[in-house]
Structures are given as C-alpha cells and as structure tokens.
Fold this protein.
Amino acid sequence: QVQLVESGGGLVQAGGSLRLSCAASGRTLSNYAMGWFRQAPGKEREFVAAMGRSGGSTNYADSVKGRFTISRDTSKNTLYLQMNSLKPEDTAVYYCAAKIQLYGSAWYRSGAVYDYWGQGTQVTVSS
C-alpha cells in the first residue's frame, strides 16, 4: 500500500506558476502509474495529467497541454505537476493518484482505475 500526500497549492494570479508535489510513502513509485486530477466546486473530477511507471510516457488533458508538466523524482519518491500560465479556470482541488503497475508503462486517464489517492491540495487562480 502507498500513501500519497499533496502539497504546493495556494493562491496565485492569472499567468503565474505553481508546482504541486505528491510525496509517496510505503512503496516506491517505480511500481505505479501516476496521475493528477482536479475537482472544481460543483463540477465532477477531471483528468489533468498521467504518467506510466517508467516515467517515459505521459498524457495531458487538452485544457492543460503546453502549460502543465508531470514529472517524477524517483530518489525522492515524489510526483510533481508544474503548472505555468495559470488561468482562473484552473482553480480546483488537485489530487494525485497511483495505480499498481508491475509491467509496461501505460498511462491512464480514468480516475476509476487508480488504486490510491491523496487528500488533495487547493489551487486558486485569481483574475
């Protein structure tokens, strides 16, 4: 079992940047496909970015492509989401998620397939 703790959220002006972190404990992230999701008030949770277990394959929602980057530091067992050119519509609670993946390096856009979730971190972008 892996425990996930997000951090790095906060209040930022439109056009600014934030880097979210997702620290994992209990298991190495090398055996997990990872994802970032977000949920705005009154809306359903939506996919943001995903990475396969090898770290070499990634995928992004169209709304964040070119602005957000998912990455991983295996030495720190931490997943990151670098968010640039933030917009007010990026305001949401951001969650990281992990799916056990012992073989292959597929990424997953559906939250339903993930096994573990963090508690979330709030990102607020002011206009």
The first strand starts at residue 3 and ends at 7.
